[in-house]
Amino acid sequence: MKILGICGTHKRGKIKSASEWFLRVALEAAQEKGAEVESIRLINYTIVPCTACNRCFCGQLCPLLENSKDETRVIFDKMAQADAFIFSSPVYAYKIPAVVLNFIQRTRPLHEIDRSPIWGTEITAYNCNPFRGKAVGNMAVGAGIGLEGALFDLFHYLQAMTATSVVCAGIGLFESEIKNLCMVDGKFSMKHELLKEMLDRDIPSYEENENAIAMARAVGRQVFDVASSELFKKIAEIVRY
Q1: Same domain for 236 and 183
Q2: Helical H runs in the chain?
Q3: Under the phi-then-psi rule, with left for phi > 0, alpha for psi from -120 to 50, and beta for the rest, what region is 93?
Q4: Domain count, the chain
Q5: Are residues 98 and 85 in the same domain?
Q6: Does one domain contain both 159 and 194?
Q7: Going by DSSP bridges, is the β-strand pair 187-188/183-184 parallel, antiparallel, or unpaired?
Q8: Within this chain, do residues 127 and 195 fall inside the same structural domain, yes or no?
Q9: For a surface tag, which of 175, 179, 193, 225 has the fewest beta carbons within 10 Å of its beta carbon?
């Protein structure tokens, strides 16, 4: 079994990300149970926004998926090869980050694949719906406020794509993440005396947060257990065909 981790941080390259770190914790827990795992950051791929040209709906190729500078097809291919997914994102304005929303909006051709039998149309933009019949774990990582909104953003989308949400975890890091919000280039930069007094001190890092680690590990184990169960496999087989 292969589980693909999809991180929604806006941090690029190798810049440290709490949501990615906990995603790796979840994947390691699944790997311990026998899963093959891979993790990607959406921000490290070129995902051109959907132009709403309607070509996929009309049975034509998606010009963006055919664009050599666009890497959305690379992500679709990775998803098609996986048996389950774990999404992990920070909280931006009480919601999922824009990079995740942009990616979701690029999946319209995948929606049309499932609707095409009803409409009597032919969809050629991509060869399958890689979400269909798969188990999904969903994590939101932040200071605490807005975790619910970030988790809920994906729920209806996954349902529409015939994926099954099997576990959600809102990981509130509180002190360590609030301090992080007050940091610029590794230095405490908030010009607020009360916050400076409360936060400009040694605070345990999120890597030391045993409760948060336990939550992330539970997500990884749950995704593996559900996706590998005989009942889920039978249901997924029915959904896929």
Answers
A1: no
A2: 18-32, 72-80, 98-105, 108-119, 147-160, 175-181, 193-199, 210-228, 230-240
A3: left
A4: 2
A5: yes
A6: no
A7: antiparallel
A8: no
A9: 193
The answer to whether the CB of 173 falls within 8 A of the CB of 141 is yes
SS3 category, 187: strand
Token reading at 55: 């070509």
pLDDT in tens, 125-181: 888 899 999 999 999 999 988 999 999 999 988 988 889 999 999 999 988 888 777
Domain hosting 73: range is 2-173+209-240
20 shares a domain with 110: yes
pLDDT in tens, 109-120: 887 777 777 777
Length of the chain: 241
- pLDDT score for 198: 78
Residue 241 has pLDDT above 60, yes or no: no
> Which DSSP string corresponds to 191-210?
--HHHHHHHSS----GGG-H
- Phi then psi for 6, rounded to 5 degrees? -125, 115
Look at residue 163 in the predicted model and tell me its pLDDT: 93
